[in-house]
Amino acid sequence: MRFVKKVQKPLMIITLVSILALAFFCRLMSNIRYETVIHEFDPYFQYKTAIYLNDYGNEEFSDWMDDRTWYPLSRVILPTMYPGLQYTATFFVKVCQYVLHLPITILQACSYMGPVMSVIGTLFSFDFGLMIDDSDDSKFLTGLLSALLFSIIPGFIQRSVAGSYDNESNSITAMVAGFDLWLRACGCADKKQINTSINTISPILAAIAFFYMGFSWGGFAFILCLVPLHVFVCFLSGSLTKQIKAAFMIWMPVGYTLMNLVWREYGFVFKQSIALPGIGVFFLLAGLELLENINKLLTPTSQIALKKYIILLFSSLIVLALPVFYKVGLLSKITGRFLSFISPTHAKSHNPLVASVSEHQPTIWSNFYFNTWFLPVVLPIGFYFGLLVKPSTGSVFMIIYLTTTTWFSAVMSRMILLASPAAAACGGYVISKVLQALTSIKVKNSQAEQKKYDYMSSKMKLIILSSAVALISSFIFSFTQHSLWCAKYVYSQPSIVILGSGSVDGEPTYIDDFREVYAWLEHNTHKNARVGFWWDYGYQVNQVGDKQIYVDNMTRSPYWIGLMGAILSSPEPISWRICKDIGVDYMLVLSGAASGYNGDDIGKFMWPIRISGNNHFELRQGYEYFRSIKERSYYNEDHEYRVDQRASHAMKNSMMYKFIYHKLDEQFGQDAKDMVRNSTIDMKYANKMDLFQEVYSSERLIVRVYKVKDATNF
User: Fold this and answer.
1) Where in or outside the cell (predicted)?
2) How large is the average pLDDT for residues 386-410?
3) For the chain, which terminus, N or C, has the lower number of CB atoms within 10 Å?
4) Domain spans in the chain, listed from the N-terminal domain onward
């Protein structure tokens, strides 16, 4: 027994270091298979701003107005972004260059941000596992299993692989760190005695982690609600301790004050409706503390009467004050994105621009299993152990965290990111508790039969325990295998370079059409040439192609994004006039018709139609030449969305149809086919183009560029 205790700690350290190494190296497959490259579309804006901060310094970065995007409006950068990611990357570069003497570039710092931050997040996930399990016998196993599951869970890997330089790559780590430090502040680490220094320092550290997340990602609103909700649930359940009250009374003012240092275009955090839960709980705790001190001077009857008056007064103040605060501008209205979590259909009917983003769509059930594997199966067991068997401050927090994020991720697929750390912690907690329960099984026998059945009892216990360990090991092995497969084949493929189906000799084929066209734009067009396109590709065209653009991937202006949609949705004369009115030189589209690439523009054409139609340009002064854009016009007489011979007249006459299928018959012959939709195209409409001219198409016709002709050319 003494030997087991002696090797337990070194073995735990070795296991934890191995898990940290796994968290780092499993995320490098992208750079190994391709090169050091930034993934997706949004990260190119993060990369561009990181370059600017690294090259010009903080003062220039703070005053930067980028006139290369959102022409002619321009974009004031700092108030319209969360700069924590950029400052972290610049910090990495400085530390590597001046402390470690490693000459890394800003591209390498940005590319490896996800793997490095995932290692730090895994370390905090281990400690978070210790906080949610208050049993000394199983807490270290819970911590190790939580760290293992978190390090490779696909829901987190998708935003933390090498090259995935986006807000979430460091914010999820900050969130887990903040939750871990919050539970430490609540006393989950020290249950036997109260240590004053820990009670003071831990809430401040938790507030700093919260500030760093708010400095890096808009998901800070989740913490803004979850921590007050945890305190409120503790209050309702009667488990609110002085330590939790003291922790929140420090965390809330420090965290909210720090968050006001984040300069955003919509104002301070105290003016946002999302801050109300924290403010309300703060005053609730202050009132409770005051009530406790007054109660010492009152009789029991007076105490009950005072409680009733306080509840009535508090409720009346809320009902009367909130409308006044909204009216005078002290509080902002509830945002559309927040309402989308309450009502999933809100965005589609009120803000189709937000609803058009693929990651804002509701999650299909298969995605839960794909991104968390078997963990949804064990969650009910976690509820059983955490609420019914032995509830604690940590386990209650875990269940609140898990419940809220499960709902959010069901409404919006992107929120699986928030649910993944909770699912990993719950999975580790359940496995640890099941093993603890099995090891404590006792088979009761009568005294007369004790000797006879002693051997059989221990043998049965060994069989049950061995079977459980084998089953759990197979689960963990299956989870690891699935996660590493996702890391290699699903989440390590950058959108800017496409992996083809492979050549005849089995070698992988890399399709580099995007960078081919961006290089053509950079070297063959005027530096200030303006390019129009659907808003998904703005950051890449602006950063890689070095072109002036009208819209980027920011959901800033439905008006300008709607104008781009109107160009694509309208007939050629109207589209040409819009281009001339706003100064478009080139139009860029994505087409999968010739290659089978299924992420093309006509596949998402309904969103440009809805967003441009929702702006009702035909009713605006100066846009009398616009034709009303209605979604039903683009369905045929059978109410079908088609691109073949049976497509609607509005569809065939739209510039999207012509841009995508123009001269496709030169690739296929007379019967030109769309390989994505397996449809024969009506080339009579597609080839009729007078006011635009094709100037460049990539090797596989995935990216196509058209020049807007001058008026004298026709």
Assistant:
1) Endomembrane system
2) 90
3) N
4) 557-713
